[in-house]
Design goal:
Blueprint (H helix, E strand, L loop, with lengths): L1 H8 L3 E6 L3 E6 L6 E2 L10 E6 L2 E6 L6 E2 L2 E2 L4 E3 L10 E3 L2 E8 L2 E7 L4 H4 L14 E18 L5 E14 L2 E5 L2 E4 L2 E6 L13 E6 L5 E5 L46
Parallel strand pairs: 2-3
Antiparallel strand pairs: 1-11, 2-4, 4-5, 5-8, 6-7, 6-9, 9-10, 10-11, 12-13, 12-18, 13-14, 15-16, 16-17
Length: about 260
C-alpha cells in the first residue's frame, strides 16, 4: 500500500513552482511564467494570482480546466493542501494544487505520463531483522510545543512535539523526538550513520503508535525514504539535531539507486 501510494502520488510530481505576489501565466507554451508539461494540451490555461494568503486561478476562455466534475470558467480562490479537502485543478492529463512550503505558496504539478514518473526506479529494502524492532519508553515534555523544522526546499515548517522516546538498539540507549500527527500517533524524521551510504542521505521516516502503558514499538524495518529521495520537486523535513543517531540502522528502505539533486529554492 505504501509503495502503491508513492508511485501514484509522489513519483508523478513533475514540478514545484514558487508563487510570488502578483500574476503568473500558466500553460504548455514556453512563454508562460509557469510552463506545464505538454500533456496539459493548452498553450495557456490562465493565470495564478497571489494576493496576500489567497491564490486565485483565472482561467482562459479556451482552456478546459476542472476541479473534480466542475468546469472552471470564472475566477476561483483555491484551497491549498493545508486543508483536508484542497482544490485540485485538472487539465488534459495534468493535475495541479497549491502547496504551502513554510511561509511560501507554491504550485505543485503532477504528470502521470511524464519523464519523472516513467523514470522511477522503485524501492529496495533490507531483509527484515527482528533486532531492529524495539520497544521504546515515551518521556513526555512538561508541555506540548511546536518546533521549527527546515525542509529540503529551504523553507521552515512547524511540527507539534510532546516529548522523546528512549530505547535500546545494539546495546546502546538512544533517544528520538517524534512529531505528533494526531493523538497517540508518532512521526519520526531521523538520520543515522548509514545515511548517505547504505541509506538515503537526508532522512528516513517512521511511524508508531503510543500505547496506553506509555510505550511504543519502533520497527525500523518499516523506516522508509521520503519522496525527496527520488523526486526533486518535493518538500521534506530535515531531521532535528537530536534525531541524528550515532549508530547504523541497516533496516528498512535502502538508498535510491541514483542520486537525485534537489532544486535551488
Amino acid at each position: 500500500m505504501h509503495e502503491e501510494s508513492y508511485r501514484r502520488n509522489w513519483a508523478t510530481i513533475a514540478g514545484l513552482h514558487v508563487l510570488e505576489p502578483g500574476s503568473h501565466t500558466a500553460g504548455a507554451a514556453p512563454g508562460n511564467d509557469i510552463v506545464l508539461p505538454a500533456s496539459a494540451s493548452s498553450p495557456r490555461i490562465g493565470r495564478f494570482v497571489l494576493n496576500g494568503e489567497v491564490v486565485r486561478f483565472e482561467p482562459d476562455a479556451a482552456a478546459h480546466v476542472h476541479i473534480g466534475d466542475r468546469s472552471i470558467t470564472t475566477p476561483v480562490d483555491l484551497i491549498d493542501d493545508e486543508a483536508d479537502k484542497p482544490d485540485e485543478l485538472e487539465v488534459g492529463g495534468i493535475r495541479m494544487m497549491v502547496h504551502r512550503s513554510g511561509q511560501r505558496k507554491t504550485l505543485r504539478v503532477w504528470d502521470p505520463q511524464g519523464e519523472q514518473a516513467r523514470g522511477f526506479l522503485g524501492f529496495r529494502w533490507f531483509p527484515i531483522q527482528m533486532d531492529y524492532r524495539v520497544t521504546a519508553r515515551f518521556i513526555r515534555d512538561a508541555a506540548a510545543r511546536d518546533v521549527k523544522v527546515a525542509n529540503t526546499f529551504g523553507d521552515v515548517d512547524a511540527y507539534k512535539t510532546e516529548g522523546v522516546v528512549e530505547f535500546t538498539l545494539g546495546g546502546r540507549t538512544l533517544r528520538l523526538r517524534p512529531f505528533t500527527t494526531r493523538p497517540k500517533r508518532f512521526y519520526f524524521v531521523f538520520r543515522d550513520r548509514s545515511s548517505g551510504e547504505e541509506t538515503y542521505e537526508a532522512a528516513r521516516f517512521l511511524y508508531s503508535d503510543l500505547r496506553d502503558d506509555g510505550t511504543t514499538v519502533l520497527d525500523f524495518n518499516q523506516a522508509y525514504n521520503p519522496p525527496c529521495a527520488f523526486n526533486p520537486y518535493t518538500t521534506c523535513p530535515i531531521p532535528l539535531p537530536e534525531n541524528r543517531l550515532d549508530v547504523k540502522v541497516l533496516a528498512g528502505e535502502r538508498a535510491y539507486p541514483v542520486h537525485v539533486a534537489l532544486p535551488k529554492s
